[in-house]
Write a structure and sequence with these properties.
458 residues; alpha/beta; Rossmann fold; Dihydrodipicolinate Reductase, domain 2; 2 domains; nine-stranded mixed β-sheet; seven-stranded mixed β-sheet; 34% helix
């Protein structure tokens, strides 16, 4: 496997929205931390000058994180630009010339997947793929068939170990903390199995709508947008076995095993919802059946988890913005007849802050042996010094660390699970904004003790 550092970064889509909001700020941060020491070549269709790209980059960092004069000056010194049509062979010869002899470049395709084949073929024809890596943005297809076709397009030119599929969610520090916390604490391992766990629920809530991106969202929906990728990553981090080694392939092997143990999602275990007012959004079809909310029930038929239901819900225009999971334990035998405790639980919040909490039953203040539930909580708020998700994934790709990138078999297994319901016609129930989805959720897809709705401090 390639583990050497890349000696150049070529990123396609240099004038696009992703570059403006994420890539330029991340490159400046990498330069500030001393993680970027190579030429950076922006590529786009616009016939810009290098000075125009620098102006765009400056505006980008000023609006998204703040200008660091020293780091930005260093970034300006290595930043180059190639403008040209992706269908034009001359564009790729210009890239080859801009690389100035670099023989281990990373090609970052921050462009629509429909262009991947064209760009990869163009790079190959001028010798820019030998010894190189390719970094691609999600979505990795829109269903199983398209994901397989996309992978085959990339694999015609690049070996699997040189393909870095970005899911920026895995670059978030709290997601790393979640895995570390789970695997390094024997307290959790003691009950992290089917003997003690009654159910697992994962919630990703957003208190806003589609924010002017109706045309995009109406082609995607909640299952494709966040469940099949981000929340399946949370699920695999929760359910995977401890890897035999800490190297990237051993970790990724265990995640794939989890997905392989999950049967395809059935329509009876899914509720889709759409918030009232969604169809009035610009770009949304008047009779749209795209979901802005989904709740589903899965099984992980591994020795550790067989018989434990996993519940996932995600949606827009919900009461709060928060992502967390809750592992609820089975109820203990009754000792005090007046006490009917809920099961203990472990709760881990990924955003907006990082929180780990144990839910326990203690005696009530009146000491009537009725009991009440409390939480023992440890919390950490984000710091301005934290590494941004895109900074992490770009740095790891440049260094050849594949741990936080999706492998081909992982992507295809994730699509296999949701593919049946994507192809089926299932109802979409309307729900009011600032509620927890349609009422049908509590009739069809509900954990044994109900959903625990996150509470976020105002």
């Amino acid at each position: 496997m390639k583990t050497s550092n890349c000696d150049a970064l070529v990123f396609f889509g240099a004038t696009g929205d992703l570059a403006y909001k994420k890539i330029f700020p991340s490159l400046q941060a990498m330069m500030r931390r001393g993680r970027l020491h190579v030429p950076v070549i922006g590529v786009a269709r616009s016939k810009w000058s290098r000075e125009q790209l620098l102006a765009r980059a400056r505006e980008s960092v000023e609006k998204h994180g703040g200008l660091d004069p020293v780091a930005f000056e260093k970034l300006s010194g290595v930043l180059r630009y190639v403008g040209g049509d992706y269908q034009d062979a001359g564009t790729y010869h210009a890239i080859r010339e801009a690389l100035s002899g670099a023989d281990r470049p990373a090609h970052y395709l921050a462009i629509p997947p429909a262009l991947f084949g064209t760009v990869v073929e163009g790079l190959a024809k001028v010798g820019c793929t030998t010894g190189a890596r390719v970094v691609v943005e999600k979505p990795f297809g829109s269903d199983l068939a398209s994901a397989q076709a996309l992978n085959q397009t990339l694999l015609k030119t690049f070996a699997e170990e040189t393909i870095f599929r970005i899911d920026h969610y895995l670059g978030k520090r709290p997601v790393h903390n979640m895995v570390f916390c789970r695997l390094e604490n024997e307290l959790l391992e003691a009950f992290w199995n089917r003997t003690h766990v009654e159910s697992v629920q994962i919630t990703m809530a957003e208190n806003f709508g589609v924010q002017g991106r109706g045309a995009f969202y109406d082609q995607v929906g909640t299952i494709r947008d966040v469940i099949q990728n981000h929340l399946f990553q949370v699920l695999t981090n929760l359910a995977m076995e401890p890897p035999v080694r800490a190297d990237s392939e051993s970790i990724r092997d265990e995640k794939v095993k989890v997905l392989k143990a999950i049967p395809p999602l059935e329509a009876k275990n899914l509720v889709r919802g759409q918030f009232r007012g969604y169809r009035a959004e610009k770009g949304v079809a008047p009779e749209s059946q795209v979901e802005t909310f989904a709740a589903l029930r899965l099984e992980v038929n591994s020795r550790r988890w067989q018989g434990v239901p996993f519940f996932i819900r995600a949606g827009k225009s919900l009461p709060v913005t928060c992502t967390e999971f809750l592992v609820r334990l089975r109820r203990p035998p009754t000792v005090f007849p007046t006490c009917h405790p809920a099961g203990n639980y472990f709760r881990f919040r990924i955003s907006p802050e990082v929180t780990g909490a144990l839910g326990l039953t203690v005696n009530d203040p009146e000491e009537k042996m009725v009991g009440e539930q409390i939480e023992l909580t440890a919390s950490r708020h984000p710091s301005v010094q934290d590494v941004d998700a895109y900074e992490r994934v770009l740095g790891d790709a440049m260094a050849g660390d594949t741990t936080v990138f999706a492998r081909q078999d992982y992507v295809e297994e994730a699509w296999r699970i949701v593919d049946p319901v994507l192809k089926a016609t299932t109802p979409v129930y309307e729900y009011e904004p600032a509620t927890w989805g349609p009422r049908e959720v509590d009739q069809k897809v509900v954990p044994p003790d109900g959903w625990q709705n996150p509470v976020v401090a105002g």
